[in-house]
Amino acid sequence: MKDLNKPKSEQARLNLQAINPSVEVVAINKQLTTDNLTYWVNKVNVVLDCSDNMATRHAVNKVCVENQIPLISGSAVGMDGQLLGVFPPYQHGCYACLFPDTEIGNLNCRTAGVLAPIVGIIGSLQALETLKFLLGLAVSCDGKFYVFDGRTLMWQ
Fold first, then answer.
1. Residue 86, class by beta-carbon neighbours within 10 Å (0-12 exposed, 13-18 middle, 19+ buried)?
2. Euclidean distance between CA atoms 71 and 64, whole angstroms
3. pLDDT at site 35
4. pTM here?
5. What is the fold, at CATH topology level, of the domain defined by 46-155?
6. Is 109 a catalytic residue?
7. Contact, 109 vs 77, CB < 8 A?
8. Fewer beta carbons under 10 A from the terminal one: N or C of the chain?
9. Which of the residues 64, 97, 109, 141 is marked catalytic?
10. Three-state SS at 24
């Protein structure tokens, strides 16, 4: 209850710093815009997109591709989850190649809801692929679009 009504970004920073004080964690407690998105993307080795709407996913994808920054995108809505890796030199395309229209499938957590375990599954896979990338290991999601059906526990 002590974290109630506090910014998620700052709470995440504090929790991560408590786990490993030698790691620098920067909390961005403001709305990302086209202008500041480029600034922040250029300060990282990989971007994890965990947004809940197509417009944000497209904006993040565009900046990552323009700046040659790897992107691991995860989303969850209802009982479904998706994972996509987009890595330079983009031999397999990017998010906009797969979803060219920002209005297609514009379901989000606010309008359709989401079951927390689906978020956990997709988030865990994003974390795994990110750690593999940062450790110099082969990532499995490069150019691949995985769809998880929580009703059947099947992957496509």
1. buried
2. 7
3. 83
4. 0.86
5. Rossmann fold (3.40.50)
6. yes
7. yes
8. N
9. 109
10. coil
